[in-house]
Design brief:
By secondary structure, the chain is of the alpha/beta class. The chain folds into two domains: 195 residues, Glycogen Phosphorylase B (Rossmann fold, 3-Layer(aba) Sandwich), CATH 3.40.50.2000; 173 residues, Rossmann fold (3-Layer(aba) Sandwich), CATH 3.40.50. The protein contains 16 helices and 13 strands. The protein has a seven-stranded parallel beta sheet with strand order 3-2-1-4-5-6-7, sandwiched between helices. Strands 10-9-8-11-12-13 form a six-stranded parallel beta sheet, sandwiched between helices. Helix 8 crosses helix 13 and helix 13 crosses helix 14. The chain starts with a strand and ends in a 7-residue tail after the last helix.
Length: 395
């Protein structure tokens, strides 16, 4: 079985999964990069030299040869690219394609009313309802978006991003996180959709209540000066610190020492791989319900907390609970680590994807019971918060 993964460019969130697929498939696995990495990602420290990876193919270096490799593959995993020319022939021929996709309507499902958009979605997706085309849902809202256009019914699988899994002993994690006061971490680009200000507003409340903590924000961007001004005006400089952008490896080091990780993005955040990484580091994660990764990775109250997106009081209450109950914070952080160690990691994901490819080729695709490659059920966007809180059941 030959499997080829086609994406815009390879990065540290994709290499671990590809390494595992290569271990399973050997020379029958290839990763095709179709374009250079964006300058913004390079500035964030994402640029690495991956030229020695045996499975990496750069499409622009040899288009005809790489296209031939795509065409001759038994299964092509097509990672959210708008340009379908790479798989146009195999779609016409009814050959196997597995699409990996984030949200269709991350800026609002109201956009589905556009007649031109619906025609495009039908052409790209809905018309393949009876073809061997399957959907890896990279986020908890993807299935609902695709249900609007009636695409891939019965063929939607839970999926996401799988950063490198870093194993550690419980005693190590306990030692990393032994601090007199809780260490809290936020990392990402300072964009409006990330809502870092919500984190600072929640922390201001805790500070005014006399609670002690140490907060670090890693990153940079358009909202940086506004965030720093808020910290200055509210006399929070002694407990809130900015580092600027750091490499992914440096961010992981901060995660090791953090007790609590905050993820505050809104519905425009398709996944949020830092949640995987923070859980892997044994952090108790508090995440917005609107982010794609949170409803898949976090079981509210068991291995983390989910708060109502853009609701500062909801975030403040969740944060207060973990800052004041260090034992509960440690318990959730340990449960978070186990979630990644046993299920949401590159090795498990690769094995399950490999098995799915084999099942599709045999004509009998199936869902796993839970986690990667389990069924991505349709949870309406407006019901997701109730769903993750156990107040609404999927029909």
């Amino acid at each position: 079985m030959k499997v080829t993964f086609v994406s815009n460019y390879i990065n540290h969130h994709q290499v671990p999964l590809s390494n595992e697929l290569y271990r399973l498939l050997g020379e029958d696995y290839a990763f095709v990069q179709t374009e250079p990495m964006e300058e913004e990602r390079i500035k964030q420290g994402w640029a690495k030299d991956y030229s020695t990876l045996p499975y990496l193919r750069i499409y622009t270096d040899n288009p005809s040869e790489v296209q031939k490799e795509i065409d001759e593959s038994d299964v092509v995993i097509f990672d959210g690219l708008e340009d379908e020319s790479y798989i146009a022939d195999r779609l016409k021929e009814g050959r196997i394609v597995i699409r990996a996709w984030e949200r269709l309507y991350r800026e609002g499902q109201w956009k589905a009313i556009s007649p031109r958009g619906l025609i495009r979605k039908y052409h790209d997706h809905t018309r393949y309802s009876k073809a061997p085309v399957y959907l890896l849902c990279c986020g908890a809202y993807v299935a609902d978006d695709f249900e609007i256009i009636k695409a891939y019914r019965g063929k939607r699988y839970k999926w996401g991003y799988f950063p490198e899994f870093l194993p550690s002993e419980e005693s190590e994690r306990k030692e990393w996180k032994e601090h007199d006061i809780p260490h809290i971490l936020w990392a990402g680009r300072f964009l409006k959709l990330k809502h870092a200000m919500d984190a600072l507003e929640a922390l201001r409340v805790l500070k005014d209540e006399g609670l002690k903590f140490e907060m670090t924000l890693i990153g940079g961007g358009e909202c940086e000066e506004e965030l720093k001004e808020f910290v200055r005006v509210n006399a929070m400089e002694s407990c809130v610190h900015f580092t600027g952008f750091l490499s992914p490896e440096e961010v992981r080091e901060y995660m090791k020492r953090a007790n609590i990780y905050l993820f505050t993005s809104n519905f425009e955040e398709g996944w949020g791989a830092v949640i995987n990484e923070a859980m892997n580091s044994g952090c108790a994660v508090i995440a917005s319900h609107a982010t794609g990764a949170a409803p898949f990775l976090i079981r509210d109250g068991r291995n983390g907390l989910i708060y109502k997106s853009e609701d500062v009081k909801s975030l403040t209450d969740a944060l207060r609970g973990l800052v004041t109950d260090r034992d509960e914070c440690r318990r959730m952080g340990e449960a978070a680590y186990q979630t990644i160690a046993t299920e949401w990691n590159p090795e498990v994901a690769a094995k399950r994807l490999y098995n799915l490819c084999e099942l599709i080729m045999s004509g009998a695709p199936a869902f796993e019971a839970d986690g990667p490659i389990s069924e991505a059920k349709v949870i309406p966007e407006k019901k997701m918060y109730e769903y993750v809180k156990g107040e609404w059941q999927c029909p």
